[in-house]
Design brief:
By secondary structure, this protein is an alpha/beta fold. Helix content is about 40%, strand content about 10%.
Length: about 280
């Protein structure tokens, strides 16, 4: 199965972002703390090469804490301003405004030297689909400014949001890029729900996911499902189906139901806090 998704509206959104970058002072990119590099759009990296950059490691409540701390150092070593956040609980949100202003210190200083004292910093918020941008903005603003949903494609267009007298945010739709560098990037993006599930084969995605989890977090899988797993990923899905009562008529295993169950258990953190990649891999 090919893990690719680049509908026409994303190409249109990318073109609009290129125009809007002329208006902003700092680019704030949300990445998923479980896959910080794979969820970081390389097209955005190219477009914003000359802008101040802030990386927000979102959904930290879902990721392995030890690995997330290493990701902070990884990005700081590359010159980014970095904040760990959990948009749903609000953890880390109160640090973001200060970091945005810190990233723009040089720009603010130059404005003051020119006698410009009250122009707010303009920040563009960007990220791939389903990385939690809308929830983050609502949490940062302290009110419901944007529509949210646990699926890609909820934000359809750009939107300016004034946080206070010092900062204005430009929200943008979540966009991917036309072709992933490798199949593993596409898989990880699919696992976290940033590719439309309707275009994927659930059993193949679940088989890929369980193979990864069994390699990296075998105890989590064994403890949660209470099953001794094999090196056959589809056989493991069958074992989950039988254990959890995902059965067809006649008592045979319903692999599709078990596949959806596994993916949902991963995405809802029932299996535990899991990171799908580490800084050392990059």
């Amino acid at each position: 199965m090919q893990y690719q998704w680049y509908p026409g509206h994303m190409a249109k959104a990318k073109k609009q972002m290129l125009e809007d970058l002329k208006l902003i002072d700092v680019l704030v990119e949300l990445v998923d703390a479980r896959i910080p590099v794979s969820s970081k759009n390389p097209d955005i990296e190219k477009m914003a090469a000359n802008k101040s950059r802030v990386i927000l490691l979102n959904k930290t409540d879902m990721a392995d804490d030890r690995i997330t701390d290493r990701w902070v150092k990884y990005f700081e070593d590359k010159g980014y301003f970095v904040v760990k956040v959990n948009s749903r609980s609000g953890a880390g949100i109160n640090k973001v405004k200060d970091v945005i202003l810190k990233a723009c210190e040089e720009k603010i200083k130059k404005d003051r030297e020119k006698g410009i004292l009250f122009r707010p910093v303009r920040a563009m918020i960007c990220g791939i689909p389903n990385v939690g941008k809308s929830t983050f903005i609502n949490s940062l603003a302290g009110k419901s400014c944007t529509k949210t949903g646990n699926k890609p494609g909820v934000t359809k267009g750009k939107q300016w949001i004034r946080l206070n007298k010092n900062i204005e945010l430009l929200d943008t739709p979540g966009i991917l890029w036309p072709k992933f560098d490798d199949v593993f990037t596409g898989k990880k993006i699919a696992f976290i729900g940033s590719i439309n599930d309707d275009i994927l084969i659930s059993s193949e995605m679940a088989a890929d996911l369980i193979g990864f989890l069994y390699e990296k977090y075998p105890d989590y899988i064994k403890n949660y499902y209470g099953i001794e797993f094999t090196n056959d990923n589809f056989k493991n899905l069958e074992l989950i189906a039988l254990k959890r009562g995902c059965l067809k008529k006649g008592g045979t295993a319903d692999i599709d139901r078990a596949s959806r169950l596994l993916v949902d258990d991963f995405r809802s953190v029932k299996l535990g806090k899991i990171s799908l990649e580490t800084p050392e891999e990059f």
